[in-house]
Amino acid sequence: MALAKIIKYEGDNETFVWKSPIEDFNTMSQLIVHQSQEAVFFKNGQALDLFEAGRYTLDTQNIPLIRRFLNLPTGMKTPFHCEVYFINKAQQMAIKWGTDSQVQYMEPTYKFPLQIGASGEMSLSVRDSRRLLVKLIGTETGLTQNGLVAQFRSFLMSKIKPYIAHTMQNATYSIFEVDAHMDEFSESLKVALTPDFLEYGISLDQFFVTTIAKPDGETAYEKFKDIYIRQYSDIAAAQIQQKVDIIEQETEARKLVIESEAIAKKRTQEGYTYQQERGFDVAEKVAENEAVGEFTNMGVGLGTMAGVGGAVGGMVGGMMNDAVGQSISPNYNNVQDNSLEAFKIKLEKLKIMKDSGLISDEEFNVEKQKLLSSL
């Protein structure tokens, strides 16, 4: 019987598990395990000794489980029967996955039944060689990346669909915002799937959702989309209108400031103050009042102007008051200050000054009291 000398595997990196065709070898054979590999000895379907990266001379000293199993004496050169599986522990990347149908879930805000599909890529590596061999291999001679995906397809679909529904129902983002939260969505699914893969000795190193299939054209989805768009468009329109209103108010306020500055500059150039301008307005208003007579209006108006219009106003007002007084009565200069006619004229002047804002209510009452006291 031919005795094997070297047992090793140098195949492609897409193979997870490879069974050596050499099953009969003696205790002096060489076992070579490369980096990112492990070798597991099987006997009668039982996983026995495990070898990590390195070069091993197979004898009864470094395969103790087989020694006990076969009860081989030390130094025995006769061949014995044993199966050797090589496990590639390197990370297998770009393994594609996808839901075979859309997943239905209940939208949490408006309680719409929605459907969503997803696909992407994942990266896997072997975490527990013995567990993988016992759970998946059985009597198979190997396991490739495609073979693993085929074996895991139904398993993955049974797990990932409820995880997608649960994630979407509890997410802080809606189906219309999921594209912007793809990393968060992917991580949630990875966390949920990791324990399931570990049950088979597989580590789920990376898990990416790259495509989201939305149910465009479906009645509930289109209705929900319309509500969503109108909600945010109405808010956006209100915010824009608010900004426009603020701009218009600021514009009007600025116009008032500019107009006020122009009026103030005009007063400065023409040599009068705001109070003097108000006095001129009062005089004009009194002059237009036809209820008390033409001469009385002129006397009161110009008399008031005498108090607010400066020296010139006082001079003109005084002359007109004299003229008005003489026109009312030939003996005007002899009328006593406490006469009823004089009281009416002065009281009317005070009232016009108060209404025009030239004197306060308190000042008006004080002066009125003085007039009443003089009667």
UniProtKB/TrEMBL annotation:
Q: Which Pfam families match?
A: Band_7_1 (PF13421), SHOCT (PF09851)
Start and end residues of each SPFH domain? 28-216
Residue ranges of every copy of the SHOCT domain listed in the record: 346-372
Top-level taxon: Bacteria
Q: Which InterPro entries match?
A: SHOCT, SPFH_YdjI
Q: What is this protein called?
A: SPFH domain-containing protein
What does the record give as the organism's lineage? Bacteria, Bacillati, Bacillota, Clostridia, Eubacteriales
